[in-house]
Amino acid sequence: MRWLALIWKSLMRSKRRTILIAGSLVLSVFTVAVLQSLLTTLNAVTNNPNSSNRLVVRHKSGLTQMLPRSYEAYLRQQTEVETVCALQWFGGYYQDPRNFFANFASDETTLFQTFREEFGLAGITEAQMKDYLRDGAGCIVGESLAKKNGWKVGDVVPLTGTIFPINPRLTIRMIFKSPKPSDENVLHFHYKVLEEGVPRMKGLVGSFWVRTHRPEDIPRLIERVDRHYANSAYETLTETENAFNLSFVKMLGNIGAIIQGITAAVVVAILIVTGNTMATAIRERTTEIAVCRAMGFSSTRVLALLLMEGVLLVGVGGLLGVLLANLAAGGVRSSLGAAMPFFADFAILPDTVISCMAGALAIGLLATFIPAYAATRRPITEGLKAVG
Amino acid sequence: MDANRFDLGGGEPIIILDDVAKSYWRETLEIPVLQGIDLEIPRGSYIALMGPSGSGKTTLLNLIAGIDRPTGGSLEVCGHHLNGLDDDELAAWRNLHVGFIFQNYNLVPVLNAFENVELPLLLTGAGRGERRDRVEEALALVNLTDRMFNYPRQLSGGQEQRVAIARAIVTNPDLLVADEPTGALDAKNAEEVLGLMERLNAELGKTIVMVTHDPKAAHHARHQIHLEKGVLDRTVEVNR
Fold first, then answer.
1. pLDDT surpasses 90 at A118
2. Which of A105, A108, A121, A300 is the most buried (most CB within 10 A)?
3. pLDDT tens string A242-293
4. Residue in A281, A288, A242, A312 with CA at minimum distance from that of residue B167
5. Are residues B155 and B113 in contact, defined by beta-carbon separation less than 8 angstroms?
6. Cα B43 to chain center, whole Å?
């Protein structure tokens, strides 16, 4: 028998209790890991480094209001601007309304330059690019979305419009790969499909995505554009891409505070439950501890053994919780990633794993230390009397 | 030597108690349990500590075994002055020099007989092979080789106490202390355990100090020391 075997056997003296407490730890760590990862994912949406030199120009009254496409000319004239891409959320679905994914009518001539990080341009051939530019009824799709639907280049994708009364049939001309999975759950088609199919959209667009030469140019450009169109029939609201994304995240409420609140509640609850369980488990062994100390186990050694029990319990529970969260993250990616692209990046990151494991171990140590310390400070003779 | 000292004679003393006292405090009230204990016990003795309830015999046993500390006087056991040892040193001393036998056996329920006996050896730094040999030897001595892998719940009371005795002797201590070792056993098993302890004393030369109420059990010892209200009353040499 080794020390670890002794610790393990002590831990398993009440299998039901150990399994139940480990189970509660698994669920707690799972919950915390998933919630914290959700927060990390949402933060990544609003802190996308690729967006550092991109702006979104839209109608001041909201996304449902359109801007004249003629604004594009003014935007291009600004010395800070590298390129401008007109973009309209189409909101169509493929075959079944539940099969929802992001799809846009966009200016094919500037799309790739404006979003060059997302398109991973290195993998795109000139022939594919020409095919797409040439075919007005063509479209491009991300690899994840193509895989999910079993699409390949040349396939026709019939989209059913939900916002606009058209059902375009689009031929896939390019399947692009992106550094981030979330950027692959998207379909783009030529803007003129929308303009020609929906008369009221002629000369209008929902937003302009502006790429500047340098991130430092952004503040003064925002100020200048909005000032230029102030008091016009189509006033603009210009903001950074991250701020634009944040406005969507904010629709969920103060999600950060909610997640941190739930995390704190889970941590406190599990600390109380683990502490109570460990206290009971140690109290039941008062005599056994006294006997071990009588045989020559020092208080420090007994304390260390008891702490190791607590750490092993929460360590195993925490590890299983993290593994479960990883499995769940895979499920979230595949089930929600297409409908909500940011979920395609949902993952339990190493930082979250480390935080969860460190938190679990801290709970194990804290919950065990107090009863264990008390047990090892108790006089041996008193412990032996506890036999009755 | 102090004229009042109880000296059992017979050679080199393994236990020397000099004016030992022990009191407990209940709030501000001091409750003396032992007073002025002067005693020398020679190596190889087999002592029965006797006396009515509350006479201090278990307290005296605990002091000798180093699991309690006196409030007065000094103790020298197995060549060590216990008063001068800190808690960790005292723990290490107990592991080397003292084997414990309890009334309720106090085996660890989640460990089998082998593992229970092996437990004190984990502290000695003995390797796995040496530990195995010593455990097997101790279990053979108490005639439980065939029950080596049984858990306490699978053993009778007598067998549990024999495992506890194997655990007490596995580190080859000089001194065995037993607190009512037959208190929870029926007559047959009690006799078996007492016979075993007698063998340990006679054949292996272990010094045994046993607390007992039972005159039959005390009869197995070579000397009986009687306590009365916390003081040594008399010693009796047992004629067998």
1. no
2. A105
3. 888 887 777 766 778 888 899 899 989 988 888 888 888 898 889 999 999 9
4. A288
5. yes
6. 13
A380/B68 touch (CB, cutoff 8 Å), yes or no: yes
Domains and CATH numbers, chain B: 44-73+83-237 (3.40.50.300)
Strands B98-101, B80-81: pairing kind: unpaired
Contacts of B140 (CB under 8 A, 6+ apart): none
Q: Structure tokens of B68? A: 């309690």
In chain B, which residue's Cα lies nearest the Cα of A293? B91
Taking only the tens place, the pLDDT of each residue in B104-129 is 899 999 999 999 999 999 999 889 99
- The domain locations on chain A are 3-46+253-385, 54-213
**What are the distances in angstroms from CA A335 to CA A31, A38, A307, A340, A341?**
19, 15, 41, 9, 11
Q: Which residues of B touch A387 (CB under 8 A)?
A: 102-104, 106
**pLDDT, tens digit (0-9, with 9 covering 90-100), for A142-189:** 998 999 899 999 999 999 999 999 999 999 999 998 888 778 889 999
- Over the stretch B130-188, which tens digit does the pLDDT of each residue have? 999 999 999 999 999 999 999 999 999 999 999 999 999 999 999 999 999 998 888 88
Residue of A295, A380, A381 best to disrupt the B interface, most CBs of B under 10 A = A295
Residue A101's CB: how many other CB atoms inside 10 A?
22
The tokens describing A254, both together, are 């103060």
Q: What is the ipTM of this complex?
A: 0.91
Q: What percent of chain A has pLDDT over 70?
A: 97
CB A321 within 8 A of CB A28: yes
- Interface membership of A379 toward B (CB under 8 Å): yes
Confidence of residue A59 (pLDDT cuts 50, 70, 90): very high
Question: What percentage of residues in chain A have a pLDDT greater than 90?
Answer: 56
Q: B100: which 2 tokens?
A: 């414990």
Q: Chain A interface, mutation test: which of B24, B58, B64, B67, most A Cβ atoms within 10 Å? A: B67
> Residue A125 burial (CB < 10 Å; 0-12/13-18/19+)?
exposed
